[in-house]
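Protocol step 4 of 6: record predicted structures for both targets in the notebook before any analysis. Target 1:
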Amino acid sequence: MRVGVLMGGISSEREISLRSGKEIVENLDKSKYEVVEIVLNSKEELISKVKDIDFALLALHGQFGEDGKVQAVLENLNIPYSGCDTLSSSICMDKDITKKVLKASNIRTARWLCVRNIDEIDYNAIEEFGYPVFVKPNSGGSSVATTRIDKKEGIEEAVKEALKYDREVMIEEYIKGDEITCPVLNGVMLPVLVIKPKSEFFDYTSKYEDGGADEFIIELEENLHKEVEEMALKSYRETKCSVYARVDMIIREGVPYVLELNTLPGMTKNSLFPKSAKGVDISFSKLLDLIIEHSLRER
């Protein structure tokens, strides 16, 4: 089977995508697959570069990769691809829509508001959240242009900065607690990882630089683990995810809150999903095999 690993792309997360893609290429079983490295530099290249592959293994992040648009093109070309479909990718890429689905499904999440310009900033709502708050691009990833704001005076500038990366900006209640991530593979939650960033939150540097954060499998207290698992799997189902996704949470005083879902989580050597899979003796190479197998069955 001729497997094309799609990487690069046009989003602010291009460099992370390239790193993910190259490590996927290195770890794919060459005895099973004919592996083709496909670096995308523009939207227009996609159709010509994938025409001779049997399967698209997506290592793209952010805009035109994680937002369902590449998936839609591949569906029209009848090329099976890895991970979530067009609809769930679109839902989870939009943090505002994701949180609306979570709220409608009675899944606990931090309070938030979404704005398109500085005139829409509702300072009264933010006061109800209490400071600090996080300001972030609504459809961004990898914590690009994400800022912790400790007082009212910083909100407007943070929103302006985030609007450089997206048309909408989320202002979100700060939930102080322990950050965990719950990888889900084919509807089953893998071991939970706790994240201890060296900086004030799990920012770009913490995620992608060696030593930026301590990340390790954690054994939660039995009832808490059960609640976290139920929330992770319900979030996965309600946003219509398939094959695999990562559900990020914060636990405050024993109470878990869902932050967001990642439908194309990073696949670098520092990435969370492979670390979790390793905890149940699934090697990186085996994890990629399972993603391909489950994706082919799904498509």
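Target 2:
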Amino acid sequence: IDPSVNVFKGYDMKKGVPIRDPEYSTRMDHLAKGICPSAMGYHNQGHDSIDKKRELVMLGTNMICMDWEPFMLPYRAGQFFVGATLNMYATPGNNGNMGQVKAYDVKTSKFKWVKDEKFSVWGGTTSTAGDLVFYGTLDGLIKAVDADNGKTLWEFKLPSGVIGHPVTYEHKGKQYVAIYYGVGGWPGVGLVFDLTDPTAGLGAVGAFKELQQYTKMGGGVMVFSL
């Protein structure tokens, strides 16, 4: 488990489930502070990739914590039904960075290398036989890093941020890398609406308040040849 995660105190190996820490749980009449990870989750929904040569799993992660205060909320069709005020912020001790790409060794349960990103890495990773790992960032970059150490070898600025994962394919003997771009979901709330309350958008405005300085809305696909 990542050392930043505090919602679990350990594991019940007989039952095969984690043991929750009540101090960082979300329940009525309890203002929980410093919950890590936030409601966005540590991993989110991005696809991971496996480097078969190195036997590593390449992960894109959220490094975001939150304060959570519940309240009673009547159900209204078509509206958010959360019943809580969320304040979200970068995981303490991570120099303000809200995302990481990590090379995880499942045999040792340790990370071989960790690469910080300013914003959450919502898209997945793609590992290639050419010793590269491709991924996109919320501030609008597609990157290729060295599978051995995570060092950036190439990057390209896209018209909008990335929440999708790269794919690679071959056509007529040439290899290509393609990626969808376009900020969406929680990170996109602050770009679409003129909001200033940090708790707005279920905490998205506070977490990603700086994103509008780095990218804008839009969507498309871009393809690169190798």
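Step 5 preliminary note on target 2. The longest strand covers residues 110-117. The chain is about 5% helix and 40% strand.
Proceed to step 6 after PI sign-off.
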